[in-house]
Q: What sequence folds into this?
């Protein structure tokens, strides 16, 4: 014997009912079964709305009643045809008349007592069961069955308690007679959700009670399985509306199912499990719309022993109340007084936590119960409040997040994994609770952090790949090249276990944002038509709505406006990856505050491309210092443009002509004076100095400016080149002196003895710095360990490809830093 229960979403339309019929008829070929149905989708709410209108004396309840009737008649017409069974139509009409009479009675009384509301609510299941049974009867013997004939309850209307002794006997007797009386065993279609008192008054057994009805029948009849057919593939690891990668759990235990259902998982009604557990009857959760999906089996079997956690769920709309007072320490009976007072007001406590100091007891209640809870506590402890021995703190807008799994029991480090993950993402925990069973770890957080917390914990326990969302700001040469590299390497990253998604792209005018990811093959078109005006604060606001877990801003601009927003990015829990040097050369106090903020927020600041483009200059310096080495001197060619100019300045061509040629081939900044000023070298020296522990400011760096003061500002470029040529003789003279000493000229930066300087320097032809080619950078580290022969790093130090590669390398570093 199998019990199949179908919820309202499975019976929403005529086509849905046909699909349900197909499932039932196929199942009937494999053995005996009983069907339990809910009302059509939304009908129970519509019935109760009718009752409320009637109670107010609002004649609109008549129109609402007619709408309900019309919906059921339309279903009959579609299923059975207009000339279908007259008996079924008359049965439906009789039920609708009885419903109208009940509503009219409520209108006359001007009052809708719970008993009347139960009667009115019962018509949804009764109407549905009649129609489903009639549809099935066209293909197989089927019978409408009213559960009020055997589900016996007390008189706690709207949430009646089942009297199991009477109910079990009645169920066995009823179905025994039903099956014996028919030559060909019919398919019973039973009304879920409803029962009756011993004197025949209609009751309901709680919202979503059709699951409960199915479990009651299954337990009474010793069913082999109870199938709950709904609109999802099974019990999910988390709410898919909040956690996109949530997946179906193939098997969970009864205890895990009860924990998940109690803490907000909506697939299963928590009370439905109890009768099944008592008889050890498995429950199978199936999807009506995907019957081929295997679903979730709930049984005494604990399933996969390698999986610590089985699911994450949450409840929102809570208030955390904390009773505190020194007079509570070591005093017996405080907790008993507290919870007795709450129970006397009908307040259900969702979570309790008390520290061993006994100074405080905190507990969570639903927001609707907050006023009653506060009143109960203040009345019970009125003497203590009067003398200020005790206080009560209220923290509204809270949510409970619970992680559930049988295998968590006795397994070290699970709690640390949960709270460590939340802490790394700056999600504050207000209270913690873990029962002795150890299969549930619950914590209270602000409701604004609920979705992020679910994603963080789900990613920590369930996801094989590390997820990283990127927002790329600045899509010129470097940013555009980086996007191309990410697109080309997407498959490679996935093979490494990384799921990197670009969810945001911005230029100076507009931005585009998509939590599901942007197609990097067509990002230019999407950005060009975006109506979102680029502003760092507006971008942050939009990012916050996405509830991201691990995400990073990739700043490929050279703008102060983005750097000024770095503190806000960090507070929004975003890591920062950038080739933009401006943050690292901020005034010391501002720079130190930014670094402290990033450290306190546990956010990474990755800046390898600040010095040397794609060369590992920054990481080498950090590794040397971290390993205990002492930096004595850093010297090198830090500018790709100046490297090119002096590598090719051999006297055969004037220096100004070399500069003009470099400008035409795109090897300089748009204004070459930015390269010649030496400020770029100065900034890189300052960055390296600060990485070495110095508090140096940019004004402390001595810089040789190759642009005469008279040409520093003002002249247009063509005029500048002409005027700059007048200084070729001075530069030629310096070269001639160097050549006379078998040396070459190079523009270098030097960091030594706490001082930094940038300028032209002579080097012997056999010196490593003299042997650079093209636009190479070369950086030599002289340290305590590398004292005789410096550690030298050399290679292309400019260009979109190598700089973007440096940024890409930082993305990989971040992925490796992030915990699994």
A:
């Amino acid at each position: 014997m199998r019990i199949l229960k179908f919820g309202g979403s499975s019976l929403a339309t005529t086509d849905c009912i046909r699909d349900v019929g197909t499932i039932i008829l196929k199942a009937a070929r494999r053995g005996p079964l009983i069907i339990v149905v809910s009302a059509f989708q939304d009908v129970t709410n519509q019935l109760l709305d009718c009752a409320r209108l009637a109670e107010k004396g609002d004649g609109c309840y008549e129109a609402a009643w007619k709408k309900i009737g019309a919906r059921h008649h339309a279903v009959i017409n579609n299923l059975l045809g207009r000339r279908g069974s007259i008996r079924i139509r008359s049965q439906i009409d009789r039920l609708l008349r009885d419903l109208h009479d009940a509503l009219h009675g409520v209108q006359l009384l001007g009052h809708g007592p719970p008993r009347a509301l139960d009667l009115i609510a019962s018509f949804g299941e009764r109407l549905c069961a009649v129609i489903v049974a009639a549809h099935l009867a066209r293909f197989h013997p089927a019978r409408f069955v009213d559960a009020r004939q055997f589900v016996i309850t007390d008189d706690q209307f709207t949430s009646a308690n089942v009297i199991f002794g009477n109910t079990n006997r009645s169920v066995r007797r009823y179905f025994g007679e039903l099956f014996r009386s028919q030559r060909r065993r019919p398919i019973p279609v039973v009304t879920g959700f409803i029962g009756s008192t011993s004197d025949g008054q209609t009751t309901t057994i709680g919202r979503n009670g059709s699951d409960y009805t199915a479990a009651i029948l299954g337990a009474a009849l010793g069913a082999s399985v109870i199938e709950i057919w709904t609109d999802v593939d099974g019990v999910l690891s988390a709410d898919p509306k909040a956690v996109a990668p949530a997946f179906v759990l193939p098997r969970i235990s009864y205890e895990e199912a009860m924990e998940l259902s109690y803490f907000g998982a909506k697939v299963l009604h928590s009370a439905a499990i109890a009768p099944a557990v008592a008889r050890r009857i498995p429950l199978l959760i199936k999807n009506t719309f995907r019957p081929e999906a295997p679903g979730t089996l709930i049984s005494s079997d604990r399933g996969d022993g390698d999986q610590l956690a089985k699911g994450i769920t949450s409840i929102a709309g809570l208030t955390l109340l904390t009773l505190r007072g020194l007079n509570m320490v070591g005093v017996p009976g405080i907790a008993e007084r507290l919870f007795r007072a709450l129970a006397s007001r009908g307040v259900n406590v969702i979570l309790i936590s008390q520290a061993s100091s006994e100074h405080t007891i905190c507990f969570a209640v639903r927001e609707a119960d907050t006023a009653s809870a506060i009143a109960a506590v203040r009345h019970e402890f009125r003497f203590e409040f009067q003398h200020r021995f005790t206080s009560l703190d209220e923290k509204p807008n809270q949510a409970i997040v619970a992680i559930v799994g049988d295998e968590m029991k006795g397994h070290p480090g699970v709690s640390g994994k949960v709270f460590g993950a939340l802490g790394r993402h700056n999600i504050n925990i207000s209270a913690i609770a873990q029962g002795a069973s150890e299969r549930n770890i619950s914590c209270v957080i602000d409701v604004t952090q609920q979705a992020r917390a679910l994603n963080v914990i789900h990613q920590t326990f369930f996801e094989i790949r590390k997820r990283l969302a990127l927002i790329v700001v600045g899509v010129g040469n470097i940013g555009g090249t980086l996007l191309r590299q990410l697109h080309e390497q997407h498959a490679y990253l996935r093979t490494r276990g990384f799921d990197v998604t670009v969810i945001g792209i911005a230029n100076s005018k507009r931005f585009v944002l998509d939590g599901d990811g942007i197609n990097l093959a067509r990002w230019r078109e999407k950005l060009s038509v975006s109506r979102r005006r680029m502003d760092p604060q507006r971008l942050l606001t939009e990012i916050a709505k996405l509830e991201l877990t691990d995400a990073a801003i990739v700043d490929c601009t050279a703008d102060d406006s983005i750097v000024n927003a770095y503190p806000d990015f960090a507070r929004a829990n975003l890591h920062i990856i950038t080739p933009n040097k401006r943050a690292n050369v901020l005034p010391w106090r501002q720079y130190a505050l930014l670094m402290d903020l990033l450290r306190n927020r546990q956010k990474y600041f990755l800046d390898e491309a600040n010095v040397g483009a794609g060369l590992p200059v920054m990481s080498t310096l950090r590794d040397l210092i971290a390993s205990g080495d002492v930096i004595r001197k850093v010297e090198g060619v830090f500018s790709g443009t100046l490297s090119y100019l002096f590598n090719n300045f051999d006297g055969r061509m004037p220096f100004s002509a070399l500069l003009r040629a470099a400008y035409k081939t795109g090897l300089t900044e748009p204004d070459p004076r930015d390269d010649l000023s030496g400020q770029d070298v100065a900034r890189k020296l300052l960055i390296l100095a600060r990485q070495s522990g110095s508090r140096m400011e940019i004004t402390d760096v001595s810089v040789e400016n190759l642009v005469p003061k008279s040409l520093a500002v003002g002249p247009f470029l063509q005029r500048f080149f002409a005027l700059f040529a007048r200084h070729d003789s001075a530069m030629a003279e310096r070269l001639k002196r160097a050549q006379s000493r078998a040396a070459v000229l190079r523009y270098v930066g030097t960091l030594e003895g706490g001082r930094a300087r940038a300028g032209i320097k002579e080097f012997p032809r056999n010196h490593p710095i003299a042997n650079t080619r093209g636009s190479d950078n070369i950086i030599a580290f002289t340290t305590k360990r590398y004292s005789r022969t410096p550690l030298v790093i050399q290679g292309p130090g400019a260009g979109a490809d190598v700089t973007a590669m440096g940024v890409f390398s930082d993305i990989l570093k971040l992925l490796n830093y992030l915990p699994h």
User: Anything to note?
Assistant: The chain is about 40% helix and 20% strand. The chain has a mean pLDDT of 92. The first strand starts at residue 2 and ends at 6.
